[in-house]
Amino acid sequence: MAEKPAAVAPDSAPRLTRRRLSVATIHGIWAAIIAALAAPSIAYLLIPARARRKNDWVDAADVAQLVPAVPLEVAFRRNRVDGWRVVSEKSTAWVVKLPEEIVAYAPQCTHLGCAYHWDPRQTHFVCPCHNSVFSVDGKVEEGPAPRPLDRYQTRIEGSKVLIGPLRAPSRTV
Ligand code: FES
Fold first, then answer.
1. Can you give the pTM of this predicted structure?
2. Confidence of residue 44 (pLDDT cuts 50, 70, 90)
3. Strand pairing report for 140-142 and 151-157
4. Which of 5, 31, 132, 161 has the fewest CB atoms in 10 Å of its CB?
């Protein structure tokens, strides 16, 4: 008498085999690695530039240090993003208390970029390279400079003068 084959139970649901578990684990690890690598790029693209620019403001001087119409040269450090690197750069500015505002001039002459200085006897900024002369409010008085001194954005917080990014250059001489 022939034996009847054992009945096979219908199995419509996929079974969790060891092989499937291994494949799912490998896919999960790959997904975690890709997410970890992509997160900095996505954050760089999605975080608004304005939020990153908050760090552009540095504490450069104390209001109490400033004598009206007498420029003070101040040095400060600022972080600059260069691709993926953040570089700390030293910079300077001439900070002046004018009657209606406190301004900070970039330290380069607007002619060809030489470093100018404040001459207390002439009470003017003087560039030694081609003899441009600027008034205390940054306007060109003499020489080949094509525009007034470039200014940083400034704001006062408590007793501190904060210096921000450079303003767009003024075209008025
Ligand atoms: S660089 Fe200052 S006058 Fe030319």
1. 0.68
2. confident
3. unpaired
4. 5
Ligand 1 atom closest to Cα of residue 116: 2
Contacts 24+ apart (CB under 8 A), 5-14: none
% of the chain beyond a pLDDT of 90: 63
Pick the atom of ligand 1 nearest to 132's CA.
3
Domain annotation covers residue 3:
no
List helix spans (H) across 47-159: 49-53
Does a structural domain hold residue 5?
no
Cα of 20 from ligand 1 centre, angstroms:
74
Question: If you measure from the C-alpha of residue 165 to the centroid of ligand 1, how many angstroms do you get, rounded to a whole number?
Answer: 23
Q: In terms of residue numbers, what domain contains 23? A: 16-47
